[in-house]
């Protein structure tokens, strides 16, 4: 996969933003997509708008890992089983509605369950075959810069209002660590009718993660007004 700019140091940039959850859902319905597709589109469009590439070297796609909750074989409902599948996000120049349509088309494969289940079986099988000390090394190799350039996670909204010591929680901004060699991690979490984003970026990707977060919001607004 094409590589995004990366300094490869311990330096990080962080940013946050929030989008009305009803707005994201309305965009998804109007375009025949899901909220997770809207999140991926917003990230892809933001990369296009903010990341500076050398002349003639801007990639057309960026491969990201998308974590998924899944039901294990033989179980009737989704449980605490996670896997991740790879999605190639289009980050070339195009109207955002076309970007969303393409991402929705690609992500339908994820929702079929076949790829997610296959990834889960591979990781589970390797975990049983490998000695425990090698588990971390294998995970870093698979979910690292050789195979992906970022993580994009969209977590489902809580159906009940969240309270902390009796006080309503109005926002939670998830922070996902970068995968080894991958310069971007973005997560979105639905809380109190808001979609709260947390952005973590390598210093070599952007100077200001706040600008990347603002570009995410701009893409969502463009989709809303289209």
Structure, described:
With 226 residues, the protein is an alpha/beta fold. Helix content is 37%, strand content 25%. The protein contains six helices and eight strands, in the order E-H-H-E-E-H-H-H-E-E-E-E-E-H. The strands form two sheets. A six-stranded mixed sheet has the order 1-8-7-4-2-3. A two-stranded antiparallel sheet has the order 5-6. Strand 7 and strand 8 form a beta hairpin. Helix 2 crosses helix 3 and helix 2 packs across helix 6.
Helix and strand sequence: EHHEEHHHEEEEEH
Main sheet specs: 6 strands, mixed
The level of helicity is 25-40%
What Rg is obtained from the alpha carbons, in whole angstroms? 18 Å
CATH superfamily: Nonribosomal peptide synthetase, condensation domain
Pfam families: WS_DGAT_C (PF06974)
Protein name: DUF1298 domain-containing protein
Domain O-acyltransferase WSD1 C-terminal: 79-223
Explain briefly what this protein structure is.
37% of the residues lie in helices and 25% in strands. With 226 residues, it is of the alpha/beta class. It has a six-stranded mixed beta sheet with strand order 1-8-7-4-2-3. A two-stranded antiparallel ribbon has the order 5-6.
Features of this protein?
six-stranded mixed β-sheet; 37% helix; 8 strands; single chain; Chloramphenicol Acetyltransferase; alpha/beta; 226 residues
């Amino acid at each position: 996969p094409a590589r995004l700019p990366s300094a490869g140091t311990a330096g990080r940039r962080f940013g946050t933003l929030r989008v009305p959850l009803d707005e994201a859902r309305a965009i998804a319905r109007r375009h025949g997509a899901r909220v997770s597709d809207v999140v991926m589109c917003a990230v892809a469009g933001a990369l296009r708008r903010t990341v500076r590439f050398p002349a003639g070297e801007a990639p057309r796609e960026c491969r990201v890992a998308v974590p998924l909750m899944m039901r294990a074989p033989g179980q009737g409902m989704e449980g605490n089983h996670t896997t991740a599948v790879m999605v190639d996000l289009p980050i070339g120049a195009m109207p955002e509605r076309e970007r969303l349509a393409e991402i929705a088309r690609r992500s339908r494969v994820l929702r079929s369950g076949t790829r997610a289940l296959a990834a889960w079986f591979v990781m589970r099988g390797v975990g049983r075959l490998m000695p425990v000390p090698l588990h971390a090394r294998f995970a870093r190799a698979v979910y690292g810069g050789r195979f992906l350039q970022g993580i994009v996670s969209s977590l489902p909204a809580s159906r009940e209002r969240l309270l902390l010591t009796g006080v309503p929680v109005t926002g939670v901004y998830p922070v996902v660590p970068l995968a080894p060699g991958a310069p971007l991690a973005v997560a979105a979490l639905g809380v109190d009718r808001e979609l709260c984003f947390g952005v973590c970026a390598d210093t070599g990707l952007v100077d200001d993660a706040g600008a990347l977060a603002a570009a995410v919001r701009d893409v969502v607004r463009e989709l809303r007004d289209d």
